[in-house]
Amino acid sequence: MTGIVAVVMVFSIPIIAIVSHHFQAQTKVKAKMIENQLELEKLKNENYMLETERMRIDLEKQLKIEDHKEKFI
Q1: How far apart are CA 53 and CA 49, in angstroms?
Q2: Residue 22 needs a FRET pair 20 to 30 A away by CA distance; which of 16, 37, 55, 57 works?
């Protein structure tokens, strides 16, 4: 009985170390994934802002052209 307890204790320490290392690695991967998602969201927001600004500029140009045409008519 004492031998079984000793064997279990000897082998449980490396198993616990392996499992805890796995959880740490998994946590690091999740953190990196969240960082990448945050960067993606920042890029999406920047792209949205640039597209919106461009559409505003294009709309202003169209309105100026239409106003200019109406003056000549």
Answers
A1: 6
A2: 37
